[in-house]
Each structure stands twice: as structure tokens, then as C-alpha cells.
Write a structure and sequence with these properties.
Layout (H helix, E strand, L loop, with lengths): L2 H5 L20 E6 L5 E6 L12 H12 L1 H4 L4 E5 L5 H8 L4 E6 L3 H13 L11 E5 L6 H5 L11 E5 L8 H11 L7 E6 L7 H13 L2 E10 L12 H4 L1 E9 L5
Length: 259
């Protein structure tokens, strides 16, 4: 074929029509009223392969737990949330008097911007004395120094870590434990809160394998919550309905501070 013949070909026939791909799903909003009366209007991304378009049960229950234990887990503390999605627990911690809050999720542009939007929308509720609330992308198990850089110079780790509904990602358990080990302050009071629902009950043992890795990593594991929710998040899914409605909450703390 000559170059003259190529010029006669209409290249547009190889292009998809403008309406070939479905339009992106719009963002949605969920409203939750905290125990102290503030109503958060939480924006959720329209759709995301990392599941940031849901307000997960674990996030709601760990928020309640933070309120019930705010004196030891929130007031004046440095708080880090991993895989935050909409960021409800960490935003609540900022409202309830945390010293510094770092809200993180995978460094996907839509996810990070969505967290920023929710933090900005909640600023009217933050106490005037509140320190910074930082939104940041983070890949579990990598670049932990970037997380620690958000702390004051006299701090050597976060007092409270929040991991809500992350354990379904079984291949990332080791990376999660690595982040917890690198960022949790080495004090007797420091806690990592790991709350989850077994949305795929036939993989419950794989969910729980996270805690075996945590123990191997030097942590004590203590169950602190078991709450059955009123409704299923995914009613059409298969598997034991009671398990799929149950939120389990665990605290990780250092087993040996001198190790």
C-alpha cells in the first residue's frame, strides 16, 4: 500500500463512538450523626476498584468505639488511619480532640481528593485548638517515613492506628503489618484498632490469618468488639448471613516494648 493510499483511509472508523464507554458514576453521599451531635455528610467516590465507594460497617463501628474510649485513644493523641475511604473515623477523631490526624488511602487521585473534600467539609466542627489534619496517599508497607514526617519532632510514632474493613485484601496482610510495626508508637498505651466484617464468610480463616502475622510481628491481639448490624451491606451475596452482618473489633498492642 502506498502512502497515497493510506491518506485515503478514514482513520475515524477505528475510533470508538463518543458514547461507547459508559459515563463515570457520580459521587454519592452518606450522612452520619456523631454521638456529640455533628452530622457528617460524607462524599463517596462514584466507583473505585479499591472499594472506596462504600461506607463500610467497620468504619462506622470503630468510630463508635473511638467515642467510647476517646480519653485513652483520641484526646491529645496522634492518630493515623489506613485505607480510610471516606475517612469517617479519622475525621471523628479530629473533631473529638486528637492532636494530629493523618488520613490515608492508596495514592489514587480520586480517592485522595475525595478524602480532602470530606476533611474540608468537616472543618466547621473541628475545635479551634485542633492541630493539623493531613490527607495523604500511602501504599501499605512502603515509605513509612513519609507518614512519620507528619508527626511533631518529639513524637516517635502514632498513638492510635485505625484499620477498618481492610482484611479482605489477603495478599496485603504482610504489608499492613509492616506499616503498623513502623508507625505505631512503642508505648504501652499505643493501640492499632483492626475492625472488620467477613463479607465473604468462606474466607473467614484467611481474614483471621492477619492476626497470626501480627502476633509474629510482636503484637498482642485482644478482641474488644463483636456487634451484629441490623442490615446486610450486600444482601445478594452468598454465605452465612450472621457473619456477614457481624463486625469484629480487635486491638493490637506491643507484646514486648524492649524488643
Amino acid at each position: 500500500m502506498s502512502s497515497q493510499d493510506e491518506d485515503l483511509i478514514d482513520s475515524s472508523i477505528f475510533q470508538e463512538p463518543s458514547d461507547y464507554y459508559p459515563p463515570p458514576k457520580p459521587a454519592t453521599f452518606e450522612s452520619r450523626t456523631l454521638q456529640t451531635g455533628e452530622t457528617l455528610r460524607l462524599r463517596l467516590v462514584g466507583h473505585n476498584p479499591l472499594w472506596g465507594h462504600h461506607l463500610w460497617n467497620g468504619a462506622q463501628v470503630v468510630t463508635d468505639y473511638l467515642y467510647g474510649h476517646r480519653e485513652e485513644l483520641v484526646h491529645g493523641k496522634n492518630v493515623l488511619e489506613l485505607g480510610a475511604g471516606a475517612g469517617m473515623p479519622s475525621i471523628a477523631a479530629a473533631i473529638w480532640g486528637a492532636k494530629n490526624v493523618v488520613v490515608t488511602d492508596y495514592p489514587d487521585e480520586d480517592l485522595v481528593e475525595n478524602m480532602r473534600i470530606n476533611v474540608e467539609a468537616a472543618k466547621e466542627f473541628l475545635p479551634r485548638s485542633s492541630a493539623s489534619v493531613v490527607v495523604q496517599g500511602h501504599v501499605w508497607g512502603a515509605n513509612m517515613e513519609e507518614l512519620l514526617a507528619n508527626l511533631p519532632s518529639d513524637s516517635h510514632g502514632f498513638d492510635t492506628l485505625i484499620l477498618a474493613d481492610l482484611l479482605f485484601n489477603h495478599s496485603q496482610h504482610a504489608a499492613l503489618v509492616a506499616t503498623v510495626k513502623a508507625t505505631l508508637a512503642r508505648t504501652a498505651q499505643a493501640k492499632a484498632l483492626v475492625f472488620f466484617t467477613p463479607y465473604t464468610p468462606w474466607k473467614y480463616d484467611k481474614d483471621m490469618a492477619f492476626f497470626d502475622l501480627a502476633r509474629e510481628g510482636g503484637f498482642k491481639v485482644n478482641q474488644v468488639v463483636k456487634r451484629v448490624m441490623d442490615k446486610l451491606m450486600f444482601k445478594d451475596d452468598r454465605g452465612d448471613e450472621l457473619l456477614r452482618r457481624t463486625v469484629f473489633g480487635y486491638e493490637l498492642s506491643w507484646n514486648d516494648l524492649n524488643a
